Amino acid sequence: MFWDGVKPYRLKNKSNLASLSKVGIYKYGKAWLKSQLIGMGLLTDKKNYPEWQIQKDAVLFQKFLPDNNFDTRVTVIGNRAFAFRRFVRKDDFRASGSGNFDMDPDKIDIHCLGIALSISKELNFNTMAYDFIYDENKEPYINEISYCFEDRIVQSCPGFWDEKLTWHPGHIWPQQCQLEDFLESDLAFTQIELKS
Fold first, then answer.
1. Rounded mean pLDDT of the chain?
2. Which ranges of the chain would DSSP assign to H, the alpha helix?
3. What domains can be seen in the chain, in order of their start residue?
4. CB of 47 within 8 A of CB of 64?
5. Residue 25: strand, helix, or coil
6. Distance between CA atoms of residues 86 and 74, nearest Å
7. β pairing state of 159-161 and 101-102
8. What is the pLDDT of residues 37-65, one digit of tens each?
9. Are 85 and 141 in contact (CB under 8 A)?
10. 143 phi and psi, to 5 degrees?
């Protein structure tokens, strides 16, 4: 970690900076080839943090909280909280990526919703996903937050809670919520003066 760094799981030497649609086939191909050559040890990169994001010069220790058979994913978009439970993988302690979901709103811990909505409001996040597990005292504990999430899973939720924790039934795509919030914001109606 404090010398050459560590490649994160799943990236496997693939560039995540360039995409074909953004940079064109030549630049994308060049970035892909460079990534492959560096991954095989045939080429070195002088940059401290090359394009596939080698983790370097920092380490994070997180307390292991056992006996959690699931986590609760709460995705907050504006003043809406979408939530579901994800069960851990077989012979593992991680729920992320298991694909084993429970969308039943009656099984969601209301404390997780309140915490997530409160943090998003306090820190002015438009969109944020929170993963909750429980500590030794059975109190909700935020394991991870991320602005990235799978839209189809959020859309699969049978509804959402508002900031008053009132339930609103119905499937909705997260992009629709983001667009609605943007159109209601001052930014949507800011006039841009074009200079000639």
1. 82
2. 20-23, 25-39, 110-122, 151-156, 174-184
3. 1-61 (no CATH), 70-184 (3.30.470.20)
4. no
5. helix
6. 11
7. unpaired
8. 877 778 776 654 444 566 778 788 888 88
9. no
10. -90, -35
For residue 168, the cross-strand partners are 160
Q: Which helix (H) or strand (E) holds 180?
A: helix 174-184
pLDDT in tens, 119-167: 999 999 999 999 999 999 999 999 999 998 999 999 999 999 999 999 9
pTM, rounded to two decimals: 0.69
Burial 120-131 (b: 16+ CB within 10 A, else e): beeeebebbbbb
- Residue 77 tokens, joined: 């978009």
- Is residue 192 within 8 A of residue 109, CB to CB? The reply is no
Q: Are strands 159-161 and 140-146 parallel, antiparallel or unpaired?
A: unpaired
Torsion 115-177-82-101 (CA) sign: negative
Pairing of strands 127-134, 70-77: antiparallel
* Dist CA 171 CA 65 (whole Å): 33
Instruction: Give the C-alpha separation, 169 to 159, whole Å.
Output: 4
